[in-house]
Amino acid sequence: MNFDRNTVLGFVLLALLFFGFFWYSRQGELAALKERARVDSITSANKPKQDPATIKIDSVRTDSQQRISSGGSTFANAGNGSENLLVAENDLVKITFTNKGGQPKMVELKKFKQPDSSLVKLASSDFDKIDYPVNAGGKSAHIADLYFENGNKTQNADGSTTVTFTLRSGDSSQSVTHQYVLKPDNYMIDFNLQLNGSDKLLEKNTLNLTWQNKAAKLEKSIEYEKQNSQIGYDYNGEYDYSSLLKYTDKQFDKNLKWLSVKQQFFNTTLIARDDKGFSSGKIEWALPADTQVVVQAIANVHYQVSQGSTATVPMSIYYGPNDYKILKGYKMGMENLVNLGYGIFAFVKYINRWIILPVFDFFTKFFSSYGLIIALLTIFIRLLTSPLMYPGYLTSAKMKILRPELAELKKKYPDQQQYAVEQMKFMREAGVNTFAGCLPSLLQIPIFFALFSFFSSSVALRGKSFLWAEDLSSYDSILNFGFNIPFYGSHVSLFTITAVVTSFLISLYSMNMTPDQSNPVMKYMPYIFPVFLLFIFNRLPSALTWYYTVSNVITLLLQVVIQKYIINHDKLLTQIELNRKKPKTKSKWQERLEQMQEQQKQMKGAQQKNKR
Prior knowledge:
- The protein has 612 residues and is α+β, with helices and mostly antiparallel strands.
- It has two domains: 5-25 and 349-580, no CATH class; 38-338, Distorted Sandwich (Beta-galactosidase, Chain A, domain 5).
- It contains 15 helices and 22 strands.
- The protein has helices spanning 5-37, 52-69, 198-201, 222-227, 324-329, 348-364, 370-401, 403-412, 416-430, 439-457, 494-511, 520-537, 542-566, 569-581, 588-611; strands at 85-89, 93-98, 103-113, 119-122, 129-131, 133-136, 139-142, 152-155, 161-168, 175-182, 188-196, 206-216, 230-235, 238-243, 249-252, 256-262, 266-272, 280-286, 293-304, 310-321, 479-485, 489-492.
- Strands 8-9-10-11-20-17-16-13-14 form a nine-stranded antiparallel β-sheet. It has a five-stranded antiparallel β-sheet with strand order 5-12-19-18-15. The protein has a four-stranded antiparallel β-sheet with strand order 1-2-3-4, with no helix packed on it.
- α1 (5-37) runs parallel beside α10, α6 (348-364) crosses α10 (439-457) and α7 (370-401) runs parallel beside α13 (542-566).
- It is elongated, with a radius of gyration of 32 Å.
- The protein starts with a helix and ends with a helix.
- 40% of the residues are buried.
């Protein structure tokens, strides 16, 4: 009761790819654990006494405030003041601005909630800052430490909101203006930095901008969120990214268009709105020991302003979801932040972009249940792949019918090599393509990794419930242990169990459809593979394990229907007898195989004679 060799080969390849992929991911997690133990300039930003880099930054700013407040400074009156807040919002975001540094203080996304039911907040900690130094009467000051005049909010005719903060010198000969424009139904705000007297305020006509970002935990599993978070950037006109778990910094020497701290479902992105972009820069990041923080990053970018007494630096900042359609609409290549396939599986992003995503969006227009949408998507995928999958299912069904004849054949030819030749001949006469038996397993590989990427990055699934699953973008849990089991986790995912059970049923069904083999790998692999899935799937999104369950049920139904209603046993055996009577021509491969077997027989006979 075993699989044929090609079917087992498909299972083995699938298992190896699964384990290879998740082993690779696991190494990243282990690297993250080591990184947590390393205290650097960003890791302990919340503990200034233990963070030399933070102490240095704070001491410079304190010194800066003391100097500009001591008199003789261009912005002598701006070192001290009171903080005033101003709120601007549209249907998607609510942004609270502060006059200290003239910048956003907190950003809330109205359509998304955190696991505790509060609104998702981006760039909302004391660590998050936009800063740059300016010359103030021969002294240096950090703009984030200066109090601008109280902000001015204006409603425009096009429905947009303009928020303006201005910082003026004592004689009004120099000024700094931060202007923010929030458009309707838009997650991106325009940030226009205007300098009057820029030739005196900036060194060498260069704006040295510091952008600090702390990405707070927004999902149920911070480990999985870190694994799916990256630093993304458009550099030299091409998109690229750096893994949080593998690297700690990235250097840019020219033409940086935008820079993003991308979490699993959200991102904060700083954008140079003109063609030349930032002239150079560097970003450093670390993974704090704080279990509520995904990453802390500090970027230093440089922008060359035109010579003269006035300068404008056009920038934008995106605070929002990793929604493929929204990001693509900006026409900046930001849609690449949505992980639809990367690394060795980068090719699956085309399956997602051209097939999965359009079909998924189509179903969302007619159905509100995302569990139902995933089931319909599964049916669509199976229909689409049926021309390739059907021969494999047909072969498996035929193998069960032919099993008694193959058993007799094995008795007739006890020699394994001779039996293999006769089995191949018999299969050819029966019209059975044994290679087709492994196609269903092999075809699952690109489809699985395409859907793995899609379900792990689809913000549309975030927070959507189905049956017992509270969030289809994360694992479903019916039991929490309170402790971690190595390689398994700290919970029981019921959709994982349904996926494993249905996979096991497919294995049992297939075992009854194939001839007996003496190879122990072939004997036990169909049983072992579902157990592998139990450990691999337990922490994956429930959307994926639900898809796998539905797909397995469809496979079982197809097998039963094909065998009971499509294949005629008597007709098949009659066809075999007719095929045997026809003149047969051997392929070159068959001739070589028979020659090799004949040579092996002769060598075996010679060895037996020598032993005598």
